[in-house]
Specification:
By secondary structure, this protein is mainly α. The chain contains seven helices and two strands. It has a two-stranded antiparallel sheet. It comes from Sphingobacterium arenae.
């Protein structure tokens, strides 16, 4: 399935703070911790706990969130289907980055080992 310009714009304008609580709920309901979630986010973006909280408090959009991120060089190893989209086929850079994060959160919630999630 291909993303549309409307879909890409919706992701760009969505705030990270609005999605973050859903990530927490998803992983905690499966027995994972917020610390593990933060480890995954830091691996992908380079944001430590303080910077992550600052971005949440500022209610930055995903466009700003990923614009400030230093994406892990191994992020391109994140593949598969998330939300009906094959990650490696997504052409819009921002949408692909947002789906990388969704995929990592999904893997965490499914109980995958941290070494595998972090592509080590």
């Amino acid at each position: 399935m291909k993303t549309t310009p409307k879909h890409n714009e919706r992701i760009a304008k969505m705030t990270f703070a609005s999605v973050y609580p859903h990530y927490v709920t998803k992983i905690e309901s499966k027995g994972r911790t917020v610390q593990e979630l933060h480890q995954v986010i830091e691996w992908l973006t380079g944001f430590d706990n303080d910077k992550l909280q600052e971005l949440i408090d500022e209610k930055v959009t995903f466009e700003t969130f990923f614009g400030k991120a230093h994406l892990n060089p191994n992020a391109s190893l994140i593949t598969g289907i998330i939300c009906g989209y094959r990650i490696e086929e997504i052409e819009n850079t921002l949408t692909k980055q947002a789906r990388y994060l969704d995929k990592l959160v999904d893997e965490l919630a499914k109980g995958r080992k941290m070494e595998k999630i972090l592509r080590q």
